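Weekly modeling sync, notes
Attendees: S.R. (lead), two postdocs, one rotation student

Agenda item 3: backlog of single-chain predictions. S.R. asked that every request posted to the team notebook include the full sequence so nobody has to chase files. The rotation student volunteered to paste the first one in as an example of the format we agreed on. Action items at the bottom.

Example entry:
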Amino acid sequence: MQLSWDLPVSASGGPIRNYDRLPLSSELAGGPQGFALPDVKELDAFERQVVEMVKPAHGTTTLGFIFQGGVIIAVDSRATMGSYISSQTVKKVIEINPYLLGTMAGGAADCSFWERNLGMQCRLYELNNGKRITVRGASKLLANTMFSYRGMGLSMGTMVAGWDHTGPGLYYVDSDGQRTKGERFSVGSGSLYAYGIMDQGYKWDMPVEEAVELGRRAIYHATFRDCASGGTVSVYHVTEKGWTKISGDDVTELHFKYYPQPESHPAYATPVL
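Predicted structure, as returned to the notebook:
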């Protein structure tokens, strides 16, 4: 049997676009490979609803910013699925090469796999061309990969940070193929809280110690307000000599370090008499 996938034609010769009025044909119930389609009138609308029903609830907080001393990357380490906390020790910074870092937000498997795949592509570029790939080039490779899988269910919101011959670089790349260059980014469910601290304390000419503390404090405050973020705060510093992991601090210890007295915390409330 030869199947035709052309649009149905009305008596006037034009295509019929209101499929609600078309009865399902048993002959057209299978695709080209013979798979049975759902017995619904509006297949596209049905698929959109199903995607929303099975869409996973992600949660994380990552941030990155460029300043006079290089690039700071700070992340939390909690993995969640809705209200379920599956891990407190996820490594959300992917070390692509000694000069490039990637961050994870969205699906842990998607980010981990494709950023490691990016590391392979960057190494092949280095072998073929005899020089390190630029941050701009690496982010473009990842964006091209994401665009080729667009609409296929990937969930990624990553940052690619590093240093090349042009200086520091920071790019945001997501699973829709979007690629944006910037100096300050925060990605994840706790990103708005991190932005509040980062925007308030950011200065281009701040010393390295102050920049590291700004990234650490921004992630801590995000973990306090966002239940899907937590675990430990990891801070990386990228310079012309490559990246260095500065610290990894438990958020509970940071809480008592920043606010040793409960009444000093902004969330402390006086009992109502």
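Discussion: group reviewed the output briefly. DSSP finds six helices and twelve strands in the chain.
Action items: rotation student to repeat for the remaining queue; S.R. to check formatting next week.
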